[in-house]
Every structure is written in structure tokens, then in C-alpha cells.
Design brief:
The complex is a heterodimer of chains A (121) and B (278). Chain A has helices at residues 11-23, 34-43, 60-69, 87-95, 108-117; strands at residues 2-7, 26-31, 48-51, 77-82, 100-103. With 121 residues, chain A is of the alpha/beta class. Chain A has a single domain (3-117), classed as Rossmann fold (3-Layer(aba) Sandwich). A five-stranded parallel sheet of chain A has the order 2-1-3-4-5, sandwiched between helices. In chain A, helix 4 links the parallel strand 4 (77-82) and strand 5. Chain A is globular and about 30 Å long. Chain B is α/β, with parallel strands linked by helices. Chain B has two domains: 3-68, Chemotaxis Receptor Methyltransferase Cher, domain 1, CATH 1.10.155; 80-267, 3-Layer(aba) Sandwich (Rossmann fold), CATH 3.40.50.150. In chain B, the strands form two sheets. Chain B has a seven-stranded mixed sheet, with helices on both faces. A three-stranded antiparallel sheet of chain B has the order 3-5-4. In chain B, helix 10 links the parallel strand 7 (206-210) and strand 8 (234-241). In chain B, helix 5 crosses helix 6. Chain B is globular. The chains are: A alpha/beta (121), B alpha/beta (278). The A-B interface holds A 85-87, 90-91, 94, 100-103, 106, 109-110, 113-114, 116-117 and B 74, 79, 156-157, 160-162, 164-166, 168-169, 173-174. The complex binds S-adenosylmethionine. Residues 17-18, 69-73, 77, 108, 110, 114, 140-142, 145, 195-197, 212-214, 217, 243 of chain B line the site of S-adenosylmethionine.
Chain lengths: 121, 278
Amino acid sequence: MRSCLVVDDSKVIRKVARRILDELSFDTNEAVDGQDALDQCKINMPDVVLLDWNMPVMSGIDFLRALRALSGVNQPKVVFCTTENDMAHIRTAMEAGADEYIMKPFDREIIESKFSQVGLI
Amino acid sequence: MKPEDFEFMRDLLKRKSGLVVNPDKVYLLESRLTPLARSHGLESLDQLIDKVRTSRDAKLVDEVTDAMTTNESFFFRDNTPFDILKKHVLPFLNKNRDSKKLRIWCAAASSGQEPYSIAMILKEQSHLWNGWDIEIHATDISNKIIDKAREARYSQFEVQRGLPIQMMMKYFRQESDGWFLNEDIKSMVKFEYMNLLEPFKNKGPFDIVFCRNVLIYFDQPTKTEVLGRVSNVISNDGSLFLGAAETVLGISDHFKPVKGQRGIYVPSAMDATAYGGV
Ligand SMILES: C[S@@+](CC[C@H](N)C(=O)[O-])C[C@H]1O[C@@H](n2cnc3c(N)ncnc32)[C@H](O)[C@@H]1O
């Protein structure tokens, strides 16, 4: 079973995402901000991170840069999932090492489509 | 809905567009045609049906068939057919067409995602196609959906279904009212109204025909008839792509599946190994 870390400060979004990921047979964990996610990744690296942008403590983009700077780990796929929906943000995310990008609101079809894009489904 | 109204509509739709509406789909007639009735200032679907029956107004009949079409589509739908196109079909044609002419037809193109996906693939391989004369014809029975396809404006939801983010960044621009496909891809595709039940207006031969997710709405004799006419406009070494839930088996002798590849069919006399078949 593949594992996914859902990083979002909204409990509701985490719940919605978890339900979809359950259906897609992912083993899902949750983190409430970038720092929490980074701490979890250092202990237990997931196959994919579903990542919000704007969060307290550490933003998604800062998390991504810190994650990609870790050496000697199995780098996971990172799929942004954010309300930031302009080309400038998308470009910044891709340059920082994101694999795919979801603009909220999302649904099961979009998650499925994007996860298959990066070879996880 | 009165049984005689249902029968009248069922026969009309079958005759005009090939659409088969079974009695368990009465709700589809109601949910899709009630808004049309309203837009004509009528109070109910019954009144609309009366109007269709008595006026025999061709434009109104078109609007009815149009409203009953299912136009769902997305970019690179099912992925595999587009991979086969990219890896096998296009390279083969590139080697075997001394004329440097490539003709593609999308026979039920809906809102354009399918022909535009093909255009993006060709653009990605542009090193292979320098100096080629490439035509992508896209047709559909719904005038409304053709207008949308020509506009090539997609919602945030639509650009996220099937389209890899790199492709979106490369070929779309964002404006306040949606995501617009760039002119260089858009201009590769020509859209036209065409009903698959009527004699084909476009002349073959085509090297590639996409006829995906439309035969499923037809009954068996109609499928056979349409595929028979498709076979007349496809070149001897051309290919036919059908939807994931469609096949030629038991329906048409003109085509055979390419063993080992999903969704692609070739003229029965052709050597299918050309397209990666085993
Ligand atoms: C579900 S869409 C398929 C779109 C695209 N080929 C795909 O696979 O994503 C079916 C399309 O077939 C069109 N259609 C239905 N009956 C037709 C007919 N008799 N002739 C031409 N097009 C037809 C509909 O208008 C609709 O746009």
C-alpha cells in the first residue's frame, strides 16, 4: 500500500482528502503545517505528499525546499493542493521541485488524475 | 411523462442522432429538456414535446437532440490511446508517408479536449513534423459544444482533468474568465458540425480516426453502419481509436483490434505489428 502525507492546516480539507485517498487505497497520515510535515518525513518518508501552500509555522513552499534539500532519503512525490491558482505560484512550485499541482477546489477525479500523472496510480 | 410522449421522443432521438433512450432513462429526458422548455418560455416538458410534434421546426429538433447529448470529455482521456499514438502510430506514419501529409479526424470531438490533446502531442514532436502538411478535423453533432471547442476556453476543473501540469503551463494562458489554449495549438484544429448518421461531409482518406465514446449511445445496427462508413474514409494502413468501453468485435468486420494494445483498431487486411501489435 502506498502512503500519502496530507499537509493542510484545515481539518476539513484533511478529512476530505483522507476520504478520497482511502478510496484510492492509500495509507494516509496528516500534518497540520510544514514543520509538522518535515518532522514526520524525517521519521517516516511517505510515497507522496499532498501539500497546501499557506499554513502557519511553515508554509508549503518552505517545507518543499527543506524536503528537497534533505540528502540520503527517498524523495517522495509532491503534489501541491492549494487555492493559489496563478501561473506565478505554479511556476515557483515546479521550480522548487513539486511534481504536480492541484488548484482547489478539488475532487476525487482531480486527485486521481494528478496522482496518475506522477505515476502513483 | 405520458407513454406516447416518451415513444415519440425516443423515436425522434433515435432517428436524428442515433441516441438510444431506454424507458429507465425517462429522468434524463426530463432533466435535460426541462431547461430547454423554460428557455422557450414554455411551462413544462409536455408543452415542449407538443411543440416539437406539431411545429416540426427543424431548429427546435436540433436543439432537442443537442440538449440530449452527453458531452463529457477530458484531455488525454484514458492516457493509453494517446501513448500508443505517440509511441507507435505517429512514428509509423512519419516514416511511411512520402507525401508528408497527415490527416486526422476526431468524429465526436465534443468540447475539443480530444483533438487538442492530439495537437499538443504533435507539437511536442515538432522535430518529426517539420515541413509536413497536417490536418486535424474535429466534428460533432452539437453546435453548442462546437462553439465551446472553438473558443478553447476551459474551466479550472477542466484543465485539471488529464492534463499534466507541464502541458498546462506550456500551452495555456490564464485570464480572469478561464484558461485559454494558446493560438498555435488552437489553430491546428478545424471544427465542423457533422452528424455521424448522415453521409460524411469530409472526404477521406484519413490516417487516424478517433471515434471515442460516441458509439456507446447507439444501437448495434447503427454502430455497424457507422463503422462501415468510417472504414471507407480510413486509409489502408490507418488506425481507428475507440473508447475504453467500445469495440469492433461482433460489430464490424472492417476492423480488427491490435493485439496487446488497448483502444486501437486497424483495417482487417493490415499488418497490425506496425502499430506495436503482437
Ligand atoms: C461523451 S462525448 C465524447 C467526447 C470525446 N470523443 C471523448 O472521448 O472524450 C460524445 C460526443 O458525441 C457527440 N455525438 C452524439 N451523437 C452524435 C452523432 N450522431 N454524430 C456526431 N456526434 C455525435 C455528442 O455531441 C458528444 O459531444
